[in-house]
């Protein structure tokens, strides 16, 4: 049986750990009260790419792309394992996540480059109707971003609850790295990271 002192320490440790987790990014589990809606909040500039070391995780290198199917607003489905053959950057985001919305224009710019060997695939983790996703993309003129939706939250659970998270896969469908937090994906530093998939 835990003593009163041990129980108090355990509770304080749990609270401190939860605070650190929430500070790391948008917490998928939080309700509207805890997270301001990105669509209602002015998007702030993505974090400086110089601080990538603490956001970059290479410990899952070689892990295969997950066998998950996503859908778009027309009901079309996409099996992620079918993407083998071309490097792909999967970006998990949500309409309520301010850092996600802030980095989206840089992903849109990359997705608009027809000569790029890299496929850009932002996937919404919104639990609401996909109509909200389509509306945000349209209103912000993110014309190169397709409204893919992880309707069952499979990717969100697999890659953690904090958004945004971006996962780079090589042309063999093997993970290269994952990056947690917002980023300017058009910066020279980000371009070096993306080139690792080649």
Break the fold down into its secondary structure elements and pairings.
Blueprint: H1 4-23, E1 26-27, E2 56-57, E3 69-71, E4 77-79, E5 88-93, H2 98-111, E6 119-124, H3 130-139, E7 148-149, H4 154-159, E8 162-163, E9 165-169, E10 175-180, H5 188-194
Parallel strand pairs: 5-6, 6-7
Antiparallel strand pairs: 1-8, 2-10, 3-4, 5-9, 9-10
Account of the 3D structure:
- By secondary structure, the protein is of the alpha+beta class.
- It has one domain: Glutaredoxin (3-Layer(aba) Sandwich).
- 29% of the residues lie in helices and 19% in strands.
- It is built from five helices and ten strands.
- It has helices spanning 4-23, 98-111, 130-139, 154-159, 188-194, and strands at 26-27, 56-57, 69-71, 77-79, 88-93, 119-124, 148-149, 162-163, 165-169, 175-180.
- The strands form three sheets. It has a six-stranded mixed β-sheet with strand order 2-10-9-5-6-7.
- Mean pLDDT is 81; it is low at 1-24 and 29-50.
Q: What is the CATH superfamily label?
A: Glutaredoxin
Query: What percentage of the residues does DSSP assign to strands (E)?
Result: 15-25%
Termini separation: 55 Å
Tally of individual domains: 1
Find the structural class using helix and strand composition: alpha+beta
Largest sheet: 6 strands, mixed
CATH class: Alpha Beta
Helix and strand element order: HEEEEEHEHEHEEEH
- CATH second-level architecture: 3-Layer(aba) Sandwich
Percent helix, as a range, is 25-40%
């Amino acid at each position: 049986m835990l003593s009163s002192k041990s129980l108090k320490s355990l509770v304080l440790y749990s609270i401190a750990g939860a605070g650190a987790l929430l500070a790391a990014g948008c917490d998928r589990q939080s309700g509207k009260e805890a997270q301001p809606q990105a669509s209602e909040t002015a998007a702030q500039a993505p974090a400086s790419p110089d601080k990538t070391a603490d956001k970059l995780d290479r410990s899952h290198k070689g892990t295969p792309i997950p066998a998950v199917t996503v859908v778009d607003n027309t009901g079309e489905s996409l099996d992620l394992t079918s993407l083998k053959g071309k490097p792909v950057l999967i970006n998990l985001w949500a309409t309520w996540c301010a850092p996600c919305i802030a980095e989206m224009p840089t992903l849109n710019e990359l997705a608009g480059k027809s000569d790029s060997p890299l496929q850009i695939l932002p996937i919404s983790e919104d639990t609401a109707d996909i109509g909200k996703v389509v509306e945000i993309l349209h209103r912000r003129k993110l014309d190169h971003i397709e409204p893919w939706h992880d309707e069952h939250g499979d990717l969100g659970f697999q890659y953690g609850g904090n958004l945004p998270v971006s996962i780079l896969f090589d042309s063999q469908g093997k993970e290269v790295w994952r990056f947690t937090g917002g980023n300017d994906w058009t910066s020279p530093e980000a371009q070096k990271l993306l080139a690792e998939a080649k």
